[in-house]
Amino acid sequence: MSAADRRVVITGLGIVSPLGSDLGEFWSALIGGRSGIEPLVNLPALDGKVAFGGECRQFAGEIDNFGELEKDLKKSIRKALKMMCRESMMAVAASQHAIVDGGFGATPMEAERSGVVFGSDYMLSPPEDFISAMKKAGIGAGGFEYGKWGTDGLRDMNPLWMLSYLPNMPASHVAIFNDLQGPNNSLTMREASGLMAIREAAQTIARGHADRMIAGATGTRIHSFKTVHATQSEQLANAELPAHEACRPFDLNRSGMVVGEGAGAILLEEYESAKARGAKIYGELLSTGSSAVADANLKGAREVALANAAKAALVAAGIDPAQLGHVSAHAMGTRAGDVEEAVALREALGDRVKEVPVVAAKSFFGNLGAGGGVVETVASLLALREGTLFPTLNFSTPDPECPVHASGAANLSAGQSFLKLSVTPQGQAAALVVAKV
User: Cys-Cys link to 217, which of 119, 244, 272, 274 (CB 3.0-4.6 A)?
Assistant: First the structure.
């Protein structure tokens, strides 16, 4: 975004998180140091590998979980629930919370000037979606008979099955429910999805193609297949640790990532439009950055990508590291990932890396997949509003390989601005800079 572009501000927030879906409850948990990581209830534990996670236990996919809804909207969402997987449900709920928080609960947005960009993980069916159909094809009675799958098995599948797992459905549902007829897009970039959705939505407003956009992401690492996949491809926290002590970003004794689930959404709006209607403004999105770096063998260079994205965002925002209030780090709590991010922050912030407070919201709820970046952005927006930075849980022993100023206590100023970072294992990084107005 250049100086000639229109200013973009954030006027609504919505979340579905292991710390709750209410912003007040969410903030109270953060500032009070209350972890949302607990022994698994919604998914059987994988012995010796995954015993706990950040589950959104308050979210059951019932219509009351979607916040304040007008009668017709409530009817529409309730009817469409049968076409939504859990991730889509969380996406819609977070978006509706953001819309109401932004002041558009009973008042519709201008349809042609409002749109949606939503990110997600790859969406997978749980095994139970196929059990009945596979039994019709012989499973459990002597072996799977491929010839029966097309004639007998598929007949037992839910005809709306595919609609539940298409990654473009969150953006589609949100647009349809709220009659948002402007730009609409869906992104699937794993953990970078949320910030990249915010980036695209902000640029859409800045260049004049819309006046307001819902931007968000939804994801999960708590899933029959995705959790197994995580055990095969990620460093996971020691399953024998107490659940609330397991996620330890930047700490010397960190042992790996904690799985989680959730969704976040924000309402982005052109500044003059927001000011004219008297909207509350959480902050101004000054700039974004993006970088993808991998070698010839497709191994991601996360530290380079993070540094590139961070530097691009800071330059575009016109903010010197000395002016930066705090950093909301990706901070997975893995041995290599946190070191790589510390190296990237050193590259982007220079000597200020030891002075700018760095907070790791994942210490409260683990890796929410694609939804994490937006939920963590909401956490920092609330910190800007309150003027106080929440702690990074379980940070007690600094790691010499991670020379960052991690916020081990809740008595640091959040400052007037923050840098948010996200990155995927494949080396896709995104960054944004937000400041108080």
Answer: 119
